[in-house]
Amino acid sequence: MTASPTVRRRRIARELRHLRERSGMTLDVAARQLDMSKSNLSRIENAQIGIKPRDVRAALALYQVTGADAEALIEIARGAQQRGWWQNYSDVLPEWFEFYVGLEAEAASLRTYEAEAVPGLLQTEAYARAIYRLTAGEERIERKVAARLRRQDVLHRENPVELSVVLNEAVLLRPVGEPAAMAEQLAHIHHVAQLPNVTVQVLPFAAGGHPAMTTPYVILGFSDDADASVVYLDNLTMGLALEEADHVRGYSLLHEKLCRMALSPADSLTRLEEASRNFA
């Protein structure tokens, strides 16, 4: 599994915030001692910016953390300095979405609900291109499509991500691109859904109203207990990561409810086959 610098940065941020609070220091006091601005230290503790290993060492000394514990955190900080593959696409990936991709690259599990579009991890090249034409125009479209397809490596790597997808039935029926491309897209979902690490369920119109009607989401889980789960929400211009345990618990319960309301995985495969005939 990849050692995502984004995940490492997030862990360092959480550890430094915890250590500062345990020491009883305010942001003001700690920032002055570390010879940095309060705003910079706050951004470091919120994983908005990175921190160099030497500055981590200084912070750990301030918080009286030494020995093996300090060296382990400094090594994590070194890992956070590495470049992820997605940083090569910074010309087409907004900074707020780069953060998500960095988390996705090391996630052990992803649980998601989509109301209108096929999730990026399940999109074909033609469908992705059509989506970008509709939402962002032609500018650098091939770079954007390439980045989206590269993200799908998490499904096929050694120790692949466990993916649970609930799709609103509208996703299967709304034509995006040419009919042949839509038929190919539905066939692709049908194929990927049969991987042992992927579960796709269709939420049918017959299920009626449901608690996620206004909120597509992704819940990311990680294999290391030191990396807490996170809920990610986004739209055209911004993303929001919810890390508080109550948020994660609430969305996890929501996902469980949607899975119960949705068709079974086997019946969902049948529904995908039926829907694909609309575009034959």
Automatic annotation (TrEMBL):
Key word Membrane present: no
Molecular function in Gene Ontology: DNA binding
Keyword terms, alphabetized: DNA-binding
HTH cro/C1-type domain mapped to chain residues: 16-70
Descriptive protein name: DNA-binding protein
Natural source organism: Micromonospora haikouensis
